[in-house]
Input
Amino acid sequence: MSLTENHPRRRGRPPKRDADDHETRDVLLRAGVVALTEKGFSATGIDEVLKSVGVPKGSFYHFFASKEAFGAELIALYADYFIRKLDQFLLDDSLTPLQRIDAFCQDAERGMARFGFRRGCLVGNLGQEMNALPNAFRAQLTDVLIDWQARTERCLEAAKSAGEIPKSTDCAGVAAFFWIGWEGAVLRAKLERRAEPLHIFAHHFRAMVTI
Output
């Protein structure tokens, strides 16, 4: 019999070790996201992440081949989380398209305030330190931002159809402008530990797009 032969899994609850491994891995990923939203990749040490959740170092390398592999998974995890958050607002048919963007901005402000403006955007944080990061992160982070822009562009197209913004609006360009500006506002809000940069950007974006 081959050692690689697959056997049907028995019905019922999975073995406790599998469940424990899955839980430990999730704990490490959650701790990593917190660290990267607060400090970035370069300033975050693996030992620091492990200590924060009480996981031994050997367990880390059981799940992740390296810090780079860990970082790549954190980017993917954060991207999936943020897509769900964006869709929650940008696909909300109970609001007009521009109100959906307003609601997203307001929710993001509440999220930053909840943590005393210590946490920013993981993607924005890593983008700021790109020269010190593995080059593979560049394409991964760019793809995430392009995806966010595409979702925002569709919302702006809906705003155009609803007559909220001019028919001549370049929705792709405006969506790119939104994310370039919003990431800067989030960085400034984190730096100053206050919401004013978010308010300024959201207000002037709204004024610009409706001209």
